[in-house]
Each structure stands twice: as C-alpha cells, then as structure tokens.
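Data card: per-record layout.
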Amino acid sequence: MRNVPALREEMARSSDQTQCKEVKKLRPAMEVLHAFSSVFYAERNISNDPEKDENMSQERIDVKKVADITIATCKEMKLNDDLVIQEWGDQLLQLLDDISCRKLLVSFERVLFMSSSALRALITLNKKAKETKAMLFLCGIDDNIMEAFRITRLNDVFQIKKNEDEGIRAFTVVSDK
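The structure for this 177-residue chain is written out next.
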C-alpha cells in the first residue's frame, strides 16, 4: 500500500485523466487514513518511519534467574517477522555475552509459530553457546514446532525439555556429573 504523499504526487503528475479520476475517488479515504495515522503516531510519541524510530525496538524475551540458570522466555506468539526475530536473536546472544550466564534455558511456552529464520537464529545461539562454553537447553516447544525440529533434525542438535521445570532439573543433573 502506498503512502498518502506518494499518492498525492501521483495525482499531481498524472497525465492520464482516467487514472487521475480513480485517485481522486480515493482522496477522502486517504485523508482520513493520513489524519488517523498522524494522531496514532503522535499519541504514542513515535514516528511512522521505523528506521528513524528507536522506540520500535522492544524486549522480545522475559529473563529471570533460578540459581545459576538464566531462563529466557519468548514474549512473542509468532516468530515469523524478520525484525522481531532479529531483535529476539540479538537479545538471546547478549545474554551469553554476560560471563554469569553459562546455563541458558530458552522457553517457548508462548510460541505457536516459528519460521525458518527463527530456527537459524537458534543455530547461531547454539554456536555462540559452544564458543562461550555455556549450556543451552530449550523447553516448552509446541508440538507443531517440534515437528519442524524433527524434520530438520534440530532435535538432535539441541537439548529439548518438555517444560521449564524439566529444563531446570536437566541442568542440575548435568552439573552433578
């Protein structure tokens, strides 16, 4: 969908009367949309240009500590937007930058859909975990997503536990060995 200024320009430049008439029919709707979007962005103190707006970046994970285990729970229900996945992956990688994070449990209890880009982000996270000698477990993976892990054989790459409690217990068992 084109923005209002671009459509206005098109109207001004258009030499084709038919096309100009069609664009003119849309003018009232375009003006309402423009007014609404201006109010929407102004109320939230953000711009409508994501590249200029620093407020668009959000925390994509909830982080808590249980003893020496860092638990990162994904806040998103769907990991299918490239920007969201990038932010989510970066936030997980930043956890491993902290020397105190040597046991990381990533919980997907809220996630219902995950794209292949999210799987790539997990592979990158796994690589960094190995480089930093951190243990990485995943938990709470939906059955449909788990099927994707099986098809791609990522279930052989990652330590996957049914839920958060099992993940915490698994770290304890591994630490005792």
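Known properties of this structure: Confidence is low (pLDDT under 50) at residues 39-55. The radius of gyration is 23 Å.

See the next section for split statistics.
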